[in-house]
Amino acid sequence: MEGYWLFLALLVSALLLGFLSVIFVLVWVLHYREGLAWDGRAAEFNWHPVLMITGFVFVQGIAIVVYRLPWTRKCSKFLMKLIHAGLNTIALTLAIISLVAVFDFHNTAKIPNMYSLHSWIGLIAVILYSLQLVLGFVVFLLPFAPIYLRAKIMPIHVYSGLFLFGTVIATVLMGITEKLIFALKAPAYKDSPEEAVFVNTLGVLVVVFGGIVLWIVTRPRWKRPLEIQQKSGGKREGNEEGATMKDCKDTEKSNLEFSREARKQNLNLDDAGQRSTM
Amino acid sequence: MEGYWLFLALLVSALLLGFLSVIFVLVWVLHYREGLAWDGRAAEFNWHPVLMITGFVFVQGIAIVVYRLPWTRKCSKFLMKLIHAGLNTIALTLAIISLVAVFDFHNTAKIPNMYSLHSWIGLIAVILYSLQLVLGFVVFLLPFAPIYLRAKIMPIHVYSGLFLFGTVIATVLMGITEKLIFALKAPAYKDSPEEAVFVNTLGVLVVVFGGIVLWIVTRPRWKRPLEIQQKSGGKREGNEEGATMKDCKDTEKSNLEFSREARKQNLNLDDAGQRSTM
């Protein structure tokens, strides 16, 4: 792969930053706050940032870059789609549990739900993410959707995925802002106590993590080779394309068939088809 | 242009949303808050959201899509670069005045500066945006940078531009969150007074504006034709390329020369060169 070492360095940096973000949010709630519990009180609320950063940021980020891993290139696209869908399902599950935690906490403390911009954008993101997952499953994983529909929906799927990822990170930043203002009283947020600096740093880590993930997936040279070959007019065909996948146990060829069919129908694969991420 | 009417519909939607956001922030500060003044007090602070949304969101958004306007395709790339740089300079100027307003307000009210995540991310964004502008001017507008350097830096310039645009929007959302928590007391933010709902709506408008701008500029089929031709191997050359620009008064050919030179040097224009936005 072209630029393999740079890719590796960026991937390792992203993983480290994501992992560090999870450590930071755990230190935040366990050391600076009330810990973790499921009692309807502050310790239950604390599952909200922990699960959002672990699931909706870190796991979602991995789900996005998973198509780019060069070690998976010998695996079929179908297997990669399964992994992609699986990771996104984990991310959504954690996000939903995290929402239950915050609604529970609000209801126990008689705090209204859904009044803040954080909650508005966040809930819209979770709903759209669920729709994206269902639509992705029906259109790209199940074998029923016709080629033209897949080709039509793929760029929307890719863009929505990356845009939602960015929106989730923006929502995390709003959440951190809210929580630090509400939780820090003496000293207050404006007096920059240690906790404020620590959690602001968590916010910066999450932004840099998102920046690296988005950079990796938007580099054309790091796309799966099959897609690059199709972009340049399908230089490798038939047995040679099949050979690309022979080392992986799962030899599902739907991806290959899709590409041939799309080429017959003269679809613009660069613009509308076959790309797993931008 | 392929998909002209869809492009037009999206462009008009983006402009309406951007314009509406500016109206909303003006109504916020003039109707719900203390109005606008330059007195070191709350009315001076109010320039901060007004100038950020007008300059750093709306004008920056226009600066990003300006390369995509089909009516400018007969203009030289150099002229478009000048407009792009000019709009970004206006955006940065408004952002800096907006920062002065908030620092002035903080200093008068004895509120510490730079304690919040909003201020951290926001200041980093302004600094990186300034660097981006200077670097863009030196590398792409001045005629001194060698081709290989331009080709090397272009994808970074494009990505950084879009990433900073997203970061600015995230920072606006944090700013709205902060301000509503601090400003609304009786009734408080959590009681969802009219102002809270109105300003939350402003936040949603800004996100949708950003989403449409990013969608427009990341569609390959809406790139300037010259770039598309280069991607497909430079089918149109010489006089024909010149003819594309003949109707525009400014017939600067540096762009054309760049493309020929880059082709000679066998650079990957798709990946590394010549693209104005992703």
UniProtKB/TrEMBL annotation, chains A, B:
Q: Where are the transmembrane segments?
A: 7-30, 50-70, 82-103, 123-144, 156-176, 196-217
What subunit structure does UniProt give? Homodimer.
Give the reactions, separated by semicolons, that this protein catalyses. Answer: monodehydro-L-ascorbate radical(out) + L-ascorbate(in) = monodehydro-L-ascorbate radical(in) + L-ascorbate(out); Fe(3+)(out) + L-ascorbate(in) = monodehydro-L-ascorbate radical(in) + Fe(2+)(out) + H(+); Cu(2+)(out) + L-ascorbate(in) = Cu(+)(out) + monodehydro-L-ascorbate radical(in) + H(+)
Species in which this protein is naturally found = Gekko japonicus
Principal EC category:
translocase
**Principal cellular location given in the protein's record:** membrane
Read off the PANTHER family from this record. Answer: CYTOCHROME B561-RELATED, PLASMA MEMBRANE ASCORBATE-DEPENDENT REDUCTASE CYBRD1
Q: Does the keyword Zinc-finger apply?
A: no
Which EC number(s) are documented for this chain?
Answer: 7.2.1.3
Q: Where in the cell is it found?
A: Apical cell membrane
- State the residue spans of region: Disordered: 228-254
Protein known as: Plasma membrane ascorbate-dependent reductase CYBRD1
Which residue numbers delimit the Cytochrome b561 domain?
A: 13-218
